[in-house]
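Record format v2
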Amino acid sequence: MKRVAILGSTGSIGTQALEVISQNPQHFTVEVLTAHNNADLLIEQAIQFQPNTVIISNKEKYLYVQQSLDKYMIKVFAGEEALAQVVEMDSIDIVLGALVGYSGLIPIINALKHGKPVALANKEVLVVAGQLVNKLSHQHNAAILPVDSEHSAIFQCMAGEFEYGNSIEKLFLTASGGPFRGYTQIQLQSVTKQQALKHPNWDMGAKVTIDSASLMNKGLEMIEAKWLFGLDAKQIEIIVHPQSIIHSAVQFFDGSIKAQMGLPDMKLPIQYALSYPQRVPSTFPRFSFWDYPQLTFEKPVIENFRNLHIAYEAIAKSGNMPCIMNAANEVAVQAFLHDKISFLSMSGLIEKTMQHISYIAQPSLDDYIHTHNESIAYAQSLL
Ligand code: MN
């Protein structure tokens, strides 16, 4: 029985993780639930799953959550510090990192420092501070298990390979292409957030859906893959695969390619990360070849989706550059969601911020925190 702490239980990954757990009560139990703002759903989840502790980040909602859960003997804490500290609990076997963006960094670092394995959905943690996060994972013998579907695919392909030193020659990171695949520059100039929020294949939160439309998500995932699998960015090729059936592929030194496939459903990678190294049975819908007589592949159009180029530039410079890129992107996505910036201007905002903020080749955790705050402030000043 694994006791799970879900950081971000009311989001898309969090709610799907609870579905996985409710279908496998003999394998998993919920120890901690945390939410940023959605107190009502957090309370509902807590009553159903009876965790030891819940955290509501927004302190203004503490009293409401605490009073609602009082009679269930569930401990309630509030605030960012409580969120960062809760991962230290002895009774936690695995932490599911499903927060959005930079906000996941400190809690995940703290979980690793306390030797907790982390099932990581929150890719920005590795984008911002991959080198540091990897170092802590090794120092404290705390595994990072990918939840992102592409990285889960690669991880599944690597089962039984790493142990024998069979290293990766090349990665094929698949991308659906998002809702604007095939759009020209002119068409992209006038796309709206309503269009951007309609992802063709995946049902996800707003941040990652906008990132998918702008292909920044694939840029972030390229950097995530680099750190998870110890690769050079040049070894990672992005392949647009509109059906989202092949979730990614690995080419080994002998030229053999392994891919992992299935219907686009985040519950499978969530379950695999939680149950690893075992697989546990599921009732998720099964893939049928007869429903997909053709799987197709295209090159991404970098001229129209500049964010891909920006991400390769950021990781080539490394240091705090991906942290700057990520912070500026978080500002750009929020601005786009609030109609303050056009779809194509997001890339310009990110590039300007990357040019402005001081570069640090070997950042400490404090440097990352400082870089993030400075980049957020600068990107906001550009709006
Ligand atoms: Mn993904």
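The longest strand covers residues 28-35.
The pocket of manganese (II) ion is lined by residues 148-150, 221 (CB under 6 Å).
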